[in-house]
Please model this.
Amino acid sequence: MDIKHAKDYLYWLYYQYLLITCCYVLEPWEQSMFHTIFITVFAMVVYTAYVFIPIHIHLALEFFSQLLGDQRESTVAIMK
Amino acid sequence: SGLKRGHTPFNEHFEQAPMYVAVFTYVGFGVGTIFGYLRDFMRACGLERCTFAAEREEQKDFVPLYQDFENFYTRNLYMRIRDNWNRPICSVPGPQFDLMERITDDFNWTFRFTGRTIKDVINMGSYNYLGFAETDANALKTVADVLQNYGTGVCSTRQEMGNLDKHLELENLVARFLDVEAAMVFGMGFATNSMNIPSLVGKGCLILSDELNHTSLVLGARLSGATIRIFKHNNMQSLEKLLRDAIAYGQPRSRRAWKKILILVEGIYSMEGSIVRLPEIVALKKRYKAYLYLDEAHSIGAVGPTGRGVVEYFGMDPEDVDVLMGTFTKSFGAAGGYIAGKKELVDFLRTHSHSAIYATSMCPPIAEQIIRSMKCAMGLDGTTQGLQRVRQLRENTRYFRRRLHEMGFIIYGNDDSPVVPLLIYMPGKIGAFARRMLDKNIGVVVVGFPATPIAESRARFCVSAAHTREMLDTVLNALDELGDFLQLKYSRHARSSRPELYDETGFELED
Model:
């Protein structure tokens, strides 16, 4: 029963995707073409996110911590 | 708004959908356009067979006969979902009707009939407001008698030999129904507008026309040769500004005063379901000395305590409106139109209107159908059936609109208008909605781009007095289910959790 619910839910999601992108009105070969292009673009976006976002976040955190770290050191020096 | 009539306020809603809906709508149209260009390219290259109109080989060097690019939308988007329009009906368009089943093998370019008939489809698209589209032999007895006596064709124009005593009887009855001096009837509703406006105004006159006026009014205004200026839909500030500018500045180059200023409005606008703000327009017209032409195609018989249109709905005097126009197609189950007003106006039209001089007059059985339905609506046949129908229509309208609001759909228009547009927005959902409703045995009319703004496609329901509560409940349950399945419930207003009230009699029965 759960498998059936899951399958129905997935079909419903696929149907919403067809309706929103207006693929519902296209002929089958046009739909295949659109699916191919869409999945390719989506895969490229996911790959780019996977490769670049962690590195950029790490660099950004390093930059800001360095900035804050320098400030703290300079005030301590004046106080002495 | 502060517009009040009697005790009930003037309630109109035109809710805007959330932003993501507009984004998805444009995305959908973008995808459709890209594939449209692709298919056009393939047809031009010869990779695909052309199935629409094209010139013969010998004429390819001439000036083109068919305008290809203007039909881009028709060829590439409308064709794909074309099976939802022009469906052939094979019974009377009452509250239920029979459809001929047809299927397509080549994606809607051609259709073929399977031979089966889909029976008892609930009719939510026909303009049958008072339910006079019926086949009951008792009700149609006088019509059958007239058919026996007069035959079907008139074979002449009104000016020559086509002026029957039935027409005179009908005109007197229409004048009595609307409480005016005189009326004239024509064989076709569209032609009533497009052929009579040119005889009322001409060059040197000014026409102020509402943004969303029907094609017949626009065509009549253009044919007349007068200057046309458009004011925003039902917007009195816009109309007043145009009136003041017209009177202050006069005609464009000569600065002379305009010969006549005519305001063209409709009683109920059929794409929006909104009702005209008649008291304010009449006040403006009296102040700036303009004339008012009111097209009551959808409102005659459908609004007002006794069904006499928007003039009665607002409790106003019919003498305030200079030209009252309407059609018999919607509430009286017949065909044709009328123009009513002062006797001088109607006598002028009898000799000067194109439709009166050249068009064939109304055929006698149709005239008798209008006579019998109008007598029924007025109560002259001795029963209260007419008043019951008007009240049933009002109850059905209020119930249907209230339930749709509660379910969370976006509905346009006035609470009292029997035309209910339900917004769908996305082009992909138009075809899906109409097909799935037909699978559930309910016939609906969906409207898209050229008739509505591009991002606001809708389904238009026409409530009828002949619909029973069970039929409306069936339709509402189907809409509820389909609304969840297709995600059409865009409204952001709080939903009422009140239980349904079946006996809604109460304050609206005052006259």
